[in-house]
Amino acid sequence: MSPTVIHLRSETKPLERRSPLSPEGAKALLDAGYIVRVEKCPNRIYKTEEFAAAGAEIVETGSWTKAPKEDIILGLKELDADGTPLPNTYIHFAHVFKKQTGWATELSRFSNAGGLLYDLEFLEEGGRRVAAFGKSAGFAGTALALLSWAQQILRPGVPLGPAPVVDSTQELIDLIKKEVKEAVAANNGEYPKVIIVGALGRCGTGAIDCLNAVGISQDLVTKWDMAETSRGGPFEEIANSDIFVNAVYLGANPAPPFVTFESLSGPNRRLRVISDVSCDPNSENNPIRIYSTHTSFENPTTLAEGKLDGPELRIIAIDHLPTLIAREASDEYSGLLLPSLLTLNRRDTEGVWTRAEKTYRDRVAELP
Where do the Alanine dehydrogenase/pyridine nucleotide transhydrogenase NAD(H)-binding domain residues begin and end (predicted)? Predict the structure, then answer.
């Protein structure tokens, strides 16, 4: 039997710097008998030279489109929606299995060409994802929320500019500390009050880690999870906080709204920033139904899509937040994913892959 080929493609999403495979992971796969090809990708947090030193074969950017059908194409974010057929086996976050906007068109690109999609969100063992960026997403989303809050205090009416590009988490923390310190001084010495919904999960843990790293007192942080939201929203406590971090995992069923235009229009609203780490604005399950568009690292915030009284409210809805701390996020994620990648040569019988394939087949069966 020929060795299994794993082809790590370059990413095309603006400012996406993460990788689902590290140079150390590439070496482990090579040592296990796989062939590993890595595309040149100037924005990737791991340098091409690091993969070459590990023994991977370096190939040209975009060469995955011409790879033999037997090759497995590994990536991170969704492919460009250009309509081209997808006949290979692909591993990445596709954002189509929850019937997001355009799901049928994108999923058909795989099914019509005889391809197969293993969606990274649905690689599970024991009912939990084998790998997730949740903690990094919570950290990054909270970091941007703090910067946006400081921006509103220091420069009212001026949206937060492009997100900082940093090489380490510590560099980001130092930047936030400086901005928050200046904003607190201009805000009569008051630090922001923060509410985290989904505080017990991975995203929520990352949000708490960020606040601790920056020096926000835990007395100012409200931590909610399922018990606190079980009564159904909207929640006055959110409107009475300065920053709301939504870190819940959106399930298959619609959730009651956490906020509404009415709940945010009271005369005493403090809320200035919503960081929607869950970030599925086009899903009918979205509990923050006051906006419907993603934001980006170039333009991190947007306004609510309706009239609100009180202070300006800015919403962060970036669907690849962890790339803000790309190296730490990639180190953690690739390490968690590697044990599953090492079983790809047994994917026809290995549970994590057979379950993921069944999920794909089930979604294809629902295509209109």
Answer: 183-317
